[in-house]
Design a protein that fits this description.
By secondary structure, this protein is α/β, with parallel strands linked by helices. It has a single domain, classed as Ribokinase (UDP-N-acetylmuramoyl-L-alanine:D-glutamate ligase). It has a 9-stranded mixed sheet, with helices on both faces. Strands 3-2-6-7 form a 4-stranded mixed sheet. Strand 4, helix 2 and strand 5 form a beta-alpha-beta unit. The radius of gyration is 18 Å and the shape is globular.
Amino acid sequence: MSDVEDWPSVVCLGELLIDLVATGPDPSIESATTFVKSPGGAPANVAVGLSRLGVPAAFIGKVSDDAFGGFLRATLDAEGVDTRGLVVDPSARTPLAFVGSQPSGARAWVFFHRGMADTLLRPDELDTDLIGHARIFHFGSVTLAADPGRSATLAAARLARERGCLVSFDPNVRLELWDDPEDARRWIGEAVPLADVIKVSGDEIDFLTGSDDPRAAATSLRRKGPTMAVVTLGSGGTYVQLESIDETVPSFDVTAIDSTGAGDAFVSGLLASLIDRRVDELLALTRPEVSDAIRFANAVGALATTQVGAIPSLPTRDAVSALMGGARGHADRLNTPGGY
């Protein structure tokens, strides 16, 4: 964006990386011989998803000036994402994530992440004006795994709350990135009270809350601070809980190919719906408004499973409207047994 006074509605902070997605008859990392290069990183996916849905979005993070870093920055620019908060570090390297599928449908990862660009963002490198002018600030947990990225992420979330942003958090648990699972619980736990909206998947709730029941898990998370707790359950729909709202919204009927980034697509749909509605007054949302917002997010997430890769699969608003207008039944979540 050339006009620095044209502030985006949503600011996303976190990792920007290369997904190498296994393809072929056996798409496991162990057996695959072909991998498709795809831009990714959960908060970056959300930013692009929002832009494709017509919501002005920005991304804050750090990339290398290597070939992969240039590709990633060019991707965000081409998608209309505001990159004024994206820092380039010539001494770093771009993180990689090899993504495969197991016979059960669960995804598997091998990360090349430690000490790479996304972990090195410092608090003093944050674009505070960008955060302060946003309506929504969104972040995840990957950059909480190590300092200085951890300190920068928490500082940004605290600043967003101070400036009156609605704060969205997707824990997006990737234990492969942490030295110890208890460290993940600790630092994700530090972030939860900073959020107004928290989205988790069904296969994360036991780790985060000690319960595999969506209602109990959502209640536990909301007691720590968030106003809205959302649990995605794949073909089981999406459970949402606010103070006076407690319901499960059905999924959509699609042919799933690759679930990489589907959860991020869901988040982009949810945040776009909140921008369309009363983003600053979550408790003022009616039950039909909440149901419509989750249904829209479900459609965005469903469509993201119909192509390979995260950013390449993110749908436009027209595509979402077409699915919502003609959809019946539940989604075929071949790759998302625990939600996305």
